[in-house]
Write a structure and sequence with these properties.
273 residues; mainly alpha; f41 fragment of flagellin, N-terminal domain; two-stranded antiparallel ribbon; 72% helix
Length: 273
Protein backbone atom coordinates (compact mmCIF):
# COMPACT_ATOMS: atom_id res chain seq x y z
CA UNK A 1 0.00 0.00 0.00
CA UNK A 2 1.42 3.39 -1.00
CA UNK A 3 2.09 6.12 1.54
CA UNK A 4 0.08 9.31 0.70
CA UNK A 5 -0.82 12.61 2.36
CA UNK A 6 -4.06 13.84 0.73
CA UNK A 7 -6.11 10.70 1.38
CA UNK A 8 -6.36 8.74 4.64
CA UNK A 9 -8.52 5.75 3.77
CA UNK A 10 -8.04 4.12 7.16
CA UNK A 11 -9.28 7.25 8.97
CA UNK A 12 -12.23 7.60 6.60
CA UNK A 13 -13.25 3.98 7.16
CA UNK A 14 -12.82 4.32 10.94
CA UNK A 15 -14.89 7.53 10.92
CA UNK A 16 -17.64 5.81 8.91
CA UNK A 17 -17.78 2.85 11.30
CA UNK A 18 -17.74 5.16 14.31
CA UNK A 19 -20.61 7.19 12.85
CA UNK A 20 -22.73 4.05 12.36
CA UNK A 21 -21.89 2.91 15.87
CA UNK A 22 -22.98 6.28 17.30
CA UNK A 23 -26.29 6.07 15.43
CA UNK A 24 -26.94 2.57 16.76
CA UNK A 25 -25.88 3.61 20.26
CA UNK A 26 -28.29 6.57 20.25
CA UNK A 27 -31.07 4.34 18.95
CA UNK A 28 -30.40 1.82 21.71
CA UNK A 29 -30.38 4.56 24.34
CA UNK A 30 -33.65 5.91 22.94
CA UNK A 31 -35.28 2.48 23.13
CA UNK A 32 -34.20 1.87 26.71
CA UNK A 33 -35.17 5.36 27.87
CA UNK A 34 -38.62 5.23 26.21
CA UNK A 35 -39.37 1.56 26.81
CA UNK A 36 -40.38 1.15 23.16
CA UNK A 37 -38.66 -0.90 20.48
CA UNK A 38 -40.32 1.24 17.80
CA UNK A 39 -39.91 4.99 18.32
CA UNK A 40 -40.22 6.05 14.68
CA UNK A 41 -41.37 4.55 11.40
CA UNK A 42 -37.70 4.05 10.49
CA UNK A 43 -37.32 1.48 13.29
CA UNK A 44 -40.01 -0.89 11.91
CA UNK A 45 -42.50 0.54 9.41
CA UNK A 46 -44.70 -2.57 9.25
CA UNK A 47 -44.64 -3.15 13.00
CA UNK A 48 -45.57 0.48 13.62
CA UNK A 49 -48.59 0.22 11.31
CA UNK A 50 -49.85 -2.91 13.06
CA UNK A 51 -49.22 -1.38 16.48
CA UNK A 52 -51.16 1.77 15.59
CA UNK A 53 -54.20 -0.32 14.61
CA UNK A 54 -53.96 -2.38 17.78
CA UNK A 55 -53.60 0.74 19.92
CA UNK A 56 -56.75 2.17 18.32
CA UNK A 57 -58.57 -1.12 18.98
CA UNK A 58 -57.50 -0.98 22.63
CA UNK A 59 -58.88 2.56 22.94
CA UNK A 60 -62.16 1.48 21.35
CA UNK A 61 -62.34 -1.49 23.72
CA UNK A 62 -61.91 0.88 26.68
CA UNK A 63 -64.72 3.05 25.33
CA UNK A 64 -66.99 0.04 24.76
CA UNK A 65 -66.27 -1.17 28.31
CA UNK A 66 -67.22 2.25 29.67
CA UNK A 67 -70.47 2.18 27.67
CA UNK A 68 -71.38 -1.31 28.90
CA UNK A 69 -70.49 -0.33 32.47
CA UNK A 70 -72.79 2.69 32.24
CA UNK A 71 -75.56 0.47 30.90
CA UNK A 72 -75.15 -1.85 33.87
CA UNK A 73 -75.43 1.18 36.17
CA UNK A 74 -78.60 2.18 34.28
CA UNK A 75 -80.10 -1.25 34.95
CA UNK A 76 -79.00 -1.20 38.59
CA UNK A 77 -80.69 2.18 39.06
CA UNK A 78 -83.79 0.87 37.32
CA UNK A 79 -83.85 -2.16 39.59
CA UNK A 80 -83.50 0.09 42.63
CA UNK A 81 -86.66 1.94 41.61
CA UNK A 82 -88.46 -1.33 40.94
CA UNK A 83 -87.41 -2.64 44.34
CA UNK A 84 -88.96 0.41 45.98
CA UNK A 85 -92.06 0.03 43.80
CA UNK A 86 -92.39 -3.55 45.07
CA UNK A 87 -92.28 -2.31 48.67
CA UNK A 88 -94.95 0.30 47.92
CA UNK A 89 -97.18 -2.26 46.24
CA UNK A 90 -96.70 -4.65 49.14
CA UNK A 91 -97.92 -1.96 51.51
CA UNK A 92 -100.86 -1.21 49.22
CA UNK A 93 -101.65 -4.94 49.15
CA UNK A 94 -101.59 -4.93 52.93
CA UNK A 95 -103.97 -1.97 53.02
CA UNK A 96 -106.43 -3.66 50.68
CA UNK A 97 -106.46 -6.75 52.87
CA UNK A 98 -106.97 -4.65 56.02
CA UNK A 99 -109.86 -2.95 54.26
CA UNK A 100 -111.59 -6.35 53.95
CA UNK A 101 -111.95 -6.52 57.74
CA UNK A 102 -115.70 -6.33 58.41
CA UNK A 103 -115.04 -4.85 61.85
CA UNK A 104 -113.58 -1.67 60.32
CA UNK A 105 -115.74 1.43 60.30
CA UNK A 106 -116.30 3.69 57.32
CA UNK A 107 -113.90 6.18 58.90
CA UNK A 108 -111.22 3.46 59.17
CA UNK A 109 -111.66 2.55 55.52
CA UNK A 110 -111.40 6.22 54.57
CA UNK A 111 -108.03 6.47 56.30
CA UNK A 112 -106.83 3.37 54.45
CA UNK A 113 -107.99 4.95 51.21
CA UNK A 114 -106.00 8.12 51.91
CA UNK A 115 -102.76 6.22 52.40
CA UNK A 116 -103.58 4.08 49.38
CA UNK A 117 -104.00 7.20 47.22
CA UNK A 118 -100.72 8.73 48.42
CA UNK A 119 -98.83 5.52 47.67
CA UNK A 120 -100.43 5.35 44.24
CA UNK A 121 -99.18 8.88 43.55
CA UNK A 122 -95.68 7.83 44.60
CA UNK A 123 -95.75 4.96 42.13
CA UNK A 124 -96.91 7.34 39.41
CA UNK A 125 -93.98 9.65 40.17
CA UNK A 126 -91.58 6.72 39.77
CA UNK A 127 -92.57 6.48 36.12
CA UNK A 128 -90.60 9.70 35.50
CA UNK A 129 -87.30 8.58 37.06
CA UNK A 130 -84.28 9.17 34.83
CA UNK A 131 -80.61 8.17 34.61
CA UNK A 132 -78.41 10.94 33.20
CA UNK A 133 -81.44 12.40 31.48
CA UNK A 134 -82.52 9.04 29.98
CA UNK A 135 -85.89 7.73 31.11
CA UNK A 136 -85.65 4.52 33.15
CA UNK A 137 -89.14 3.54 32.05
CA UNK A 138 -90.23 4.21 28.49
CA UNK A 139 -93.55 5.59 27.38
CA UNK A 140 -94.07 2.25 25.68
CA UNK A 141 -92.43 -1.14 25.68
CA UNK A 142 -89.13 0.29 24.45
CA UNK A 143 -85.51 -0.81 24.57
CA UNK A 144 -82.06 0.79 24.41
CA UNK A 145 -79.43 -0.93 22.26
CA UNK A 146 -75.97 -1.34 23.81
CA UNK A 147 -73.03 -2.27 21.56
CA UNK A 148 -70.89 -4.91 23.23
CA UNK A 149 -67.95 -5.03 20.80
CA UNK A 150 -65.10 -2.61 20.18
CA UNK A 151 -65.38 -2.61 16.37
CA UNK A 152 -68.95 -1.34 16.14
CA UNK A 153 -70.21 -4.63 14.69
CA UNK A 154 -73.69 -6.10 15.13
CA UNK A 155 -72.88 -7.50 18.59
CA UNK A 156 -75.34 -5.74 20.87
CA UNK A 157 -77.70 -6.18 23.80
CA UNK A 158 -81.10 -4.54 24.25
CA UNK A 159 -81.96 -3.21 27.71
CA UNK A 160 -85.63 -2.74 28.52
CA UNK A 161 -87.46 0.46 29.33
CA UNK A 162 -90.58 -1.25 30.64
CA UNK A 163 -93.68 0.87 30.90
CA UNK A 164 -94.63 1.34 34.56
CA UNK A 165 -97.70 3.25 33.48
CA UNK A 166 -99.18 -0.01 32.21
CA UNK A 167 -98.55 -1.60 35.62
CA UNK A 168 -99.99 1.36 37.52
CA UNK A 169 -103.08 1.66 35.34
CA UNK A 170 -104.29 -1.71 36.58
CA UNK A 171 -105.21 -0.28 39.99
CA UNK A 172 -105.56 3.38 39.04
CA UNK A 173 -109.28 3.44 39.84
CA UNK A 174 -109.13 1.13 42.87
CA UNK A 175 -111.25 2.24 45.82
CA UNK A 176 -110.76 0.39 49.09
CA UNK A 177 -113.19 2.50 51.06
CA UNK A 178 -115.77 -0.26 50.54
CA UNK A 179 -115.62 -4.02 50.92
CA UNK A 180 -116.41 -4.65 47.26
CA UNK A 181 -113.80 -2.13 46.08
CA UNK A 182 -111.16 -3.56 48.42
CA UNK A 183 -111.80 -7.06 47.14
CA UNK A 184 -111.34 -5.93 43.55
CA UNK A 185 -108.20 -3.98 44.54
CA UNK A 186 -106.60 -7.13 45.97
CA UNK A 187 -106.72 -8.74 42.53
CA UNK A 188 -105.41 -5.59 40.79
CA UNK A 189 -102.52 -5.09 43.24
CA UNK A 190 -101.57 -8.78 43.09
CA UNK A 191 -101.40 -8.53 39.30
CA UNK A 192 -99.25 -5.37 39.58
CA UNK A 193 -96.83 -7.12 41.95
CA UNK A 194 -96.52 -10.01 39.51
CA UNK A 195 -95.79 -7.54 36.70
CA UNK A 196 -93.06 -5.84 38.76
CA UNK A 197 -91.57 -9.25 39.54
CA UNK A 198 -91.45 -10.07 35.81
CA UNK A 199 -89.81 -6.72 35.01
CA UNK A 200 -87.20 -7.23 37.75
CA UNK A 201 -86.46 -10.73 36.45
CA UNK A 202 -85.90 -9.27 32.96
CA UNK A 203 -83.71 -6.56 34.48
CA UNK A 204 -81.59 -9.16 36.27
CA UNK A 205 -81.18 -11.22 33.09
CA UNK A 206 -80.01 -8.15 31.18
CA UNK A 207 -77.56 -7.21 33.94
CA UNK A 208 -76.17 -10.75 33.84
CA UNK A 209 -75.63 -10.68 30.09
CA UNK A 210 -74.01 -7.24 30.14
CA UNK A 211 -71.69 -8.36 32.95
CA UNK A 212 -70.47 -11.25 30.79
CA UNK A 213 -70.11 -8.88 27.83
CA UNK A 214 -68.00 -6.57 29.99
CA UNK A 215 -65.81 -9.50 31.05
CA UNK A 216 -65.33 -10.41 27.39
CA UNK A 217 -64.24 -6.85 26.57
CA UNK A 218 -61.71 -6.93 29.41
CA UNK A 219 -60.30 -10.24 28.17
CA UNK A 220 -60.06 -8.85 24.62
CA UNK A 221 -58.25 -5.77 25.89
CA UNK A 222 -55.75 -7.90 27.79
CA UNK A 223 -55.03 -9.96 24.69
CA UNK A 224 -54.70 -6.88 22.47
CA UNK A 225 -52.30 -5.24 24.92
CA UNK A 226 -50.18 -8.41 25.07
CA UNK A 227 -50.03 -8.64 21.28
CA UNK A 228 -49.19 -4.95 20.94
CA UNK A 229 -46.51 -5.26 23.60
CA UNK A 230 -44.75 -8.00 21.64
CA UNK A 231 -44.58 -5.66 18.66
CA UNK A 232 -43.70 -2.28 20.14
CA UNK A 233 -42.17 -2.77 23.58
CA UNK A 234 -38.42 -3.13 23.98
CA UNK A 235 -36.83 -6.29 25.36
CA UNK A 236 -34.76 -4.60 28.08
CA UNK A 237 -32.39 -7.55 28.60
CA UNK A 238 -31.62 -7.91 24.89
CA UNK A 239 -31.34 -4.16 24.31
CA UNK A 240 -29.05 -3.73 27.32
CA UNK A 241 -26.72 -6.27 25.75
CA UNK A 242 -26.78 -4.29 22.51
CA UNK A 243 -26.07 -1.07 24.41
CA UNK A 244 -22.98 -2.59 26.02
CA UNK A 245 -21.83 -3.83 22.60
CA UNK A 246 -22.26 -0.41 20.97
CA UNK A 247 -20.49 1.28 23.89
CA UNK A 248 -17.47 -0.96 23.37
CA UNK A 249 -17.57 -0.40 19.61
CA UNK A 250 -17.77 3.36 20.15
CA UNK A 251 -14.75 3.36 22.42
CA UNK A 252 -12.72 1.11 20.11
CA UNK A 253 -13.84 3.09 17.04
CA UNK A 254 -12.74 6.36 18.64
CA UNK A 255 -9.38 4.84 19.52
CA UNK A 256 -8.89 3.45 16.01
CA UNK A 257 -9.84 6.78 14.40
CA UNK A 258 -7.21 8.49 16.51
CA UNK A 259 -4.73 5.78 15.55
CA UNK A 260 -5.54 6.21 11.84
CA UNK A 261 -5.10 9.96 12.07
CA UNK A 262 -1.69 9.46 13.67
CA UNK A 263 -0.55 7.09 10.92
CA UNK A 264 0.21 10.01 8.63
CA UNK A 265 2.74 11.22 11.18
CA UNK A 266 5.15 8.58 9.83
CA UNK A 267 5.41 10.61 6.60
CA UNK A 268 7.11 13.41 8.54
CA UNK A 269 9.87 11.03 9.49
CA UNK A 270 10.47 10.28 5.86
CA UNK A 271 10.58 13.96 4.99
CA UNK A 272 12.84 15.01 7.85
CA UNK A 273 15.41 12.28 7.47
Amino acid sequence: MSVVINTNSAATSAAYNLSNTNVNLQRSLNRLSSGYRINSSFDDAGGLAVSMKMSAAIRRTDAASANVGNSISFLQTQDGVLKTADKVLSRMSELTTLALDVTKTTNDLSLYQKEFNVLREQLTDMENEVFNGISLFGAGEGALTVLTSQDGSSQSVDISQSNLNTVNSGYATSDISSYTGAKAAVTAITSAIESIATIRAQNGAEQSRLTYALDMLKVNKTNLEAANSRIIDVDVASESTQLARFNILQQSGTAMLAQANQASQSILRLLTN
